[in-house]
Amino acid sequence: MEEEKTVRTGLVCEGGAMRGMFTAGVLDVFLEEGIRFDGMVGVSAGATFGCNFKSRQIGRTIRYNKRFAKDRRYCSIESLLKTGNLYNAEFCYHTLPETIDLFDWDSFLANPMKFYMVATDCDTGRPVYHECKSSNPEEMEWFRASASMPLVSKPVVIRGQTLLDGGISNAIPLSFMEHIGYERNVVILTQDRSYQKKPQAGMQAFRRLQKQYPLCYEAMKNRHFMYNDQLADVHAKETTGQVLVIQPPAPLGIHRVEHDPEALERVYQIGRSEAEKRLEEVRAFLG
After folding, report:
1. Which one-letter DSSP state was computed for residue 18?
2. Alpha helices in 147-260 (DSSP H)
3. Other beta carbons less than 10 A from residue 111's beta carbon
4. What SS3 class is residue 23?
């Protein structure tokens, strides 16, 4: 008798800045309930918040975001003016995870689930995929690159590549996971089912700031087409049972940059609620 083929399960987390509190709520319920995956990919906030799923740190994402929501060291116009980054790179990617609310690299690396993140190559306008599999300081630069929102972040240079937010070029990387062999994927979206992305505002400013990267500008200009096509693909595969989608039941009503801890908690609880409603469905889907 032939050995039964193992189906690899994947988790796809889109970004959305502080809409990522919805994703954090879903992932914490998954952790509490022992829901596991063979691999995971995160884009922007889906990577910077999603890494806590691999390190199995329940509550860390909502905890530090509420604690520092009003802290100028974390996210502020002051930081943008002084450093070129709305989210202060030194505080967010070093001080916070290394000395204040420790990121558990040992648990992250001990977890056999593979973890990928997406950034955008400024020279080509194309997505770059990186598997995080060490605690080398360079890994934090990949997290920062994946979440470096255009217009309010400086590009991140890693080994000669100039990188920005992964959402510019591949906002919902389901096809990436399918391409590398994950056949049964759960996709966490941070917009409700009625959402369709509109053309990006502020393109003239982006063109001036990134004039040396015309292909990145083109990717930004066409971002809404890419996103809406990906959204259609996800929902088509949901209809045929190839994909399971968890997304907000209605618009979350939260700012991309949110300084109100109560708003963060509200969106986090919506994520928890949606995950709890779907638990048995998720278990059945993953097999």
Report:
1. G
2. 174-179, 203-209, 214-221, 223-239
3. 16
4. helix
User: Across the chain, how many H-helices and E-strands are there?
Assistant: 13, 8
pTM (2 decimals)?
0.95
Residue 32 is classified by DSSP as H
Query: In this structure, what are the phi and psi dihedrals at residue 15, rounded to the nearest 5 degrees?
Result: -95, -145
**How many whole angstroms separate alpha carbon 35 and alpha carbon 238?**
19
Provide the pLDDT confidence category of residue 192 given band limits of 50, 70 and 90: very high
Residue 68 near residue 88 (C-beta atoms within 8 A): no
The residue with tokens 């399918």 is 178
The predicted-structure confidence for 222-241, as pLDDT tens digits, reads as follows 999 999 999 999 999 999 99
Residue 109's H or E segment, with its range, is: helix 105-110
pLDDT digits over 241-282, tens only? 999 999 999 999 999 999 999 999 999 999 999 999 999 999
Which of 73, 105, 69 has its CA nearest to residue 88? 73
C-alpha to C-alpha distance for 198 and 58, rounded to whole angstroms: 34
**For 115-158, how does the pLDDT look when each residue is reduced to its tens digit (9 = 90+)?**
999 999 999 999 999 999 999 999 999 999 999 998 899 999 99
H or E element that contains 165: strand 161-165
Please state, in angstroms and as integers, the Cα–Cα distance from residue 217 to each residue in 17, 90, 153, following that order.
20, 27, 15
